[in-house]
Amino acid sequence: MKIEVSKVLHKYQVTLPKGVREKLDLTIGEQVLFIKTEQGLIMKKVTPDLIEKIMMEK
Fold it and tell me: pTM, whole model, 2 decimals?
């Protein structure tokens, strides 16, 4: 497992490390979703498929 670290800035902003951006295939302006679990947080790239899946679970 590769560990990536980022610093929280004064407006609670963080820069996603390059490895994370590449793993999620993120580009400027795209959105990410945070899901709280018992083990911690999951971050996913927001896609139409993900939104559809979430809406169907409700």
Answer: 0.73
